[in-house]
Every structure is written in structure tokens, then in C-alpha cells.
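Now for a specimen:

…
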Amino acid sequence: MNNKSYLQLERKYKNRVDGTNIGKELIAPCLAGEPSLYRRGTAYFSSTSLKSYASVIERLLDKKVKFEILCSPVIQDKALLEILKNNSNEIKREEAFRQLSETIVLDAVGFSQNPTSVSHRTKVLSYMIASGQLEIRFAIPRNMEKAETGFNNDDLYHVKNGYFTFKDGNDVAFDGSFNESENGHVKNYEKTQVFRSYENSDIERLQDTIEDIDDDWNGRTQALKIHPLSDDILKKIKLIASKLPPGFQPDPPKPKPPQKKLPTPWDHQLEALDNWKNNNYKGILALATGSGKTITAIHATHKMSQQLISGDKKSLCVLISVPYVVLADQWVSELGKYNINPIKCYGSSRNWHTKLSSKVFSFNLHSEEFLVMVVVNATLRATKFQNLLHKIKINDSKKMLVITDECHHHANKQLVETKLPKAQYIMGLSATPWNKNDSDSERILTSYYGKIVAKYDLDDALRDGVLCPYYYHIHEVAMNNEEEEVYLKLTSTITSLYQQLENSGLGPEEKKILEFTIYKRARHLDAIEDKFEVLRNILSTKEPEPFKLFYCGSGFQSDDNDEEGQQSETERLRNIDRITKILKPKGWKVAQFTSEESQSTRLDTLELFKNRHIHAIAAIKVLDEGFDIPKCNEAYITASSSSERQWVQRRGRILRIAKHKDSATVHDFVITQTSDTELFQPLITKELERVEAFQKSCSNKLQNETQIAKIKQKYHLI
């Protein structure tokens, strides 16, 4: 167990400022190094101090580690206090002090308590004193022993320092404000300075502190009188220790990894896990949206924890990284179903930093064998989290498993190289780890996660009944003259900038213009007027029904027709509002689902949707990842997305299996009608890429083939 974590101590520690716990971050690492001596001067000593480093101290019982505590007697007994205040007889005062120390120590070891009600830490304390491993002495300022001065609790020995002596010749000393109690170690605002023998600048202060403590302990300080425990007290404590219940173990049984049985995996999940294992526990699982990526990863976590902890007696730390809070909440909920209770590392650091700090320390000391964290990407990048992540010790006996959901969000070289830990086991999850021809993302992701070790696409999931079958309907829409003119103008700008990029490169401002123009063109296509007219015609013959989803773009009506920029966005109608205005007059109960709504509002919306209190959700991109709506059976897609990842996400979200759901229907609003087949051929090609991706696996494939062929023929794509 012996480790040298004391060699990484900071120069100072502060409780309740940055989440530091002095007991766990200063005292416990030193004790973990199995010092030959821990000598402590403290105004107040309590058995509660053991709480902050119990996992360490209990492992030290019966080892050659000596604890020596010099403290002040805080007097609660009024009769005893009167004797000390008013009696000038030295013998009687000595007897009073003996009674005082006896009362304090016997209370601390639970002498007068019912044995069945004595706390575990109290038993540990009595065990240590009885065995001679812990020695307690009381320090009384000599001026308090003079009758004319009187005895006052405010005049007590108030030193708060200590030191450790290690077998490798090193010493560590500290001098600060904290007592040897739980409040001092954990709760109060406290600070202390640390002096280390391995730091040359600390040597002088270290020696001075050790000398002062030694002088006090050995009675060489003239201003103090030292009162050791009497033989009578020690006999009584030994009697207590001898009556410890049969089978008493100072070190309680450690918690076992979760044992709750998981659902039987699908064949594709078992295959994915086998492939991952055979690739040395590293790789990307490219599993279709809705095919059980989360439960596959939980199976890996569960099995590995059992194998390592129960079999190999090793510790396992699991880091689960996700892009969004809602996805993090879903992971926490799903893990909880199988008795895995992770630390939620997102939101305010006040909610997780102290807890995680404590767990990391315990993990490093092997007292915490199964540590699970769920972190969102924003927190993963944060300094506070990174500082704790770097403290986690990974070696032959302490393993780390990194699981990243939607790992394509990590296609960033700096993040991969500086923020993600060097773990022994790594698993990336994504239906589409990278888009076609995106070699940069592929290179970055595989450098950390490894290659794709399992593929299970939508066709596979439909074949195996993991996702429900669907029908695909193509609704052709046209651009009007003004919309065509705007589109061509934006396209001309984009083409020109791309040519400049290839020939001579682009400056920072020109790159911004290119990115903005591409974005502006995409918004323009989302807002084509005919999309909303066609939608209005479709819904004119439909009665409001539950479980319907309307995907729309993030733009505004007439977003680009106002070339002079006279019309503000607040004066224009958002696409999502245009859809809502179509639905509500026809009796549809509809709720909007965007990034503008709060997290709680979005969750409420999903609950209303699930329970049929609303018919439909109108959503923008925010629904693509992280939210599950398995009961959705029909979707209308008015956004002309060219992103393969969005196609996969949106389709998978609609095709999840649910009770009483036999199939799903997808309506796609496709721009196919333009005034010039040559000029608009690239646009139609892009639109048809999405069409063919949806068409490929649908149940009404044959019915759509004629329609698709006509579009291709018109634009000379056959």
C-alpha cells in the first residue's frame, strides 16, 4: 500500500475555497506513505478527524506507524472547572487535571456508551490507544495552574501544527489554522502552509516547526505543563478494546461493483464488444441511432468492473464524455438502473468538484475501487476538471475506461492531444463518426479512439427488427424567381471564394465571409416559400394526431430577399413560427423545441408529447442529438440539410421502437423545380443525395423510383 503521494504535496492548502479538503489532500497522502511518526500539536482533537482519512488510517492499524497528539483540554464539567479555578493546592489541581484528561479520552472512546451504539471510528480510536499506536497528551499553559490567575478555557494551548517522518528520510511539516477534527479538515475555512524536506526553500521552516513541536511534546517548553494519559485510563481503554464484538475488523468490507443483471444484449452488441475486446479494448462502435449504443457501453463497463475488481483485485475508473447536458442526464439515469451511480460532472463546479476530488483521492489509495464520472464536453475542457483528471493515477492496478458518446464532437486535434486521458481502454460511440471525404476528422479521431471496430447501420437495424420499418414520401417544391436569384447570387460568391482559396488562399476575414455565405445560403433554402405552401396543402386533409414531429430550419421568412438589410430579424417570421401558424388554426396542439427554451421546458415538452397532451413538436437542430422520442411515428422535414450525420440522426430518432408502433412515416420537402436545369444541377444533386439515403431503406421503395427517375432525367443526372 505504501506510496509516495506526499512527494506531490502543494505548498499550501485552503478549505472551502477551491474545494480542497485538508484532511484528504494533505493528511491522508502523508499517512498513505506509512510514516514512522505523525506528531501533531492541536488546540482541539476529536475522533471526527478520522472521517476525512478513515480509508487510510484503518489500513495502518497494527503497522509501525506511531500517532502522537498533543492537544488542549476543553472543559465541560463545571465542578471540575471550579476546582481548577479556585484551588491552590498543587496535588488537588494535578488530580483535577488527571480527572479532566480521563473524562475527555474516555468520552472520545465511547466508554460510557452502549457498545451497540458506539460508532466505527470510535472503536478504531480505542483500538489505536489500547495497542499503543496512538498516544494522547494534554498541554496546559503554566499560568493556568496559578490560583491567582484562575483557569480559563480561552487561555488554552492553541498551537495547530504537525509533522510526518518517513522511512525514506523525508519529513513533511505544516503550520496553519486547522484543528484535528472533521470541521478543521473539511468544513471550516482553514488554511495551512506546508514545509517539505525535498524542497530546499522549505528546510529552515521545516526544522523550526519540528523543533517547536518536539519541545512541546517532550515538556521542554517552559510555558507548558504536559499531562500524559494515566495507567488507569489506559487499562480502561484496553478493557473497551477487548470487548469489541467478535469478527470486528477495523477496515469495513469494501463496496462491490454493481451486480444488477443487465438485459440480454442483441447479437450486434455482442459482436461489437467482441471486436472491441479483440482490438485490445480500443476502437469506435459505429452503431445506428436507436440501436443501443448506450446499453452496449454499459455492458462493457459492467463486465470490466466485475472482471477487474472481483477477479484481478484491481480498481476501475470510468470516464463517460457526452456533448450535451440532456444526454448526460440520460446516461446517469440509464446507469442508475443497473446500480451504477456516477458523479455528475456538469453544471456548477460547486455541485461536483469537492465530491470528485474526494473520490479521486480515495481511488488513488485503492479505497475506492469503482469510480464512474459522466462529464459534458464543456466541463471536460475546463481547468478545474482537468486538474482533477490529471490527479487520477493509472497503472497496472488502477485502470481507466474512457467512453465517449457522439465521439465525432471530439474531432479536434487540441482536445484529443491535451484534454483526453491516456487510458488503457477507450471506446468511441457514433452512428456517423465522420462524414464522407472528411479525412481530417477521421485522422484525428482514430489517433485517439482507434479504428472503427464495429459497423451496424440503419439497414442492419431494420433487417434485425432493432428499428421499426418506415415509409418515405417525397414532396417536390419549387423556388420562385426571387428565391432563385438570391440563391444564384450567394452561390456565385461561394464559388469565387473557393477559387481564390485554391489559387492563393484566403485571409481570416475572407474565410469568415465564406463561412457566413455558406450558412446564409443554407438558411435561404430552408425558408423556400413553397415548402410551407405544400405543407399547408398536406395538412388540409389531415386531422390532428399525436406523436408528430416537424423539423425546420433555423432561418426566417424572406431571410435573404431584403438585400438592403432594412428588415430586422425581429420583423420577420421564423420558419418554426411559420409551421406553428399553419398547425394551430387547424386544431393542432404544438410545442416548439429549440435552444431558446430552457432545459426544464424542453423536458416538460417531451413529457407532454409522450402522454398525448400535445399532438406535435416543432423542432430545430437541437433535437438531433440527445433527446429520445420513440413514440414519434411521423416526421415532416422542411430543412434542406446536406449533412449525412443529420440525416442519420433524424431518421434514427423517428425509427425507435415503441409500444403500439408498427411503422413510421417520413415526409421530405425536396427542391426539384427550378427555371434552369444547368444552373441548378449542383443543388438538385445535393438534394438527391439526401433523397437516396432515405429511399434506400424505406418500405415503399418501388413507389418512389419513378418519381426519382424523372427528377434525374430532368437535370441530366442519369
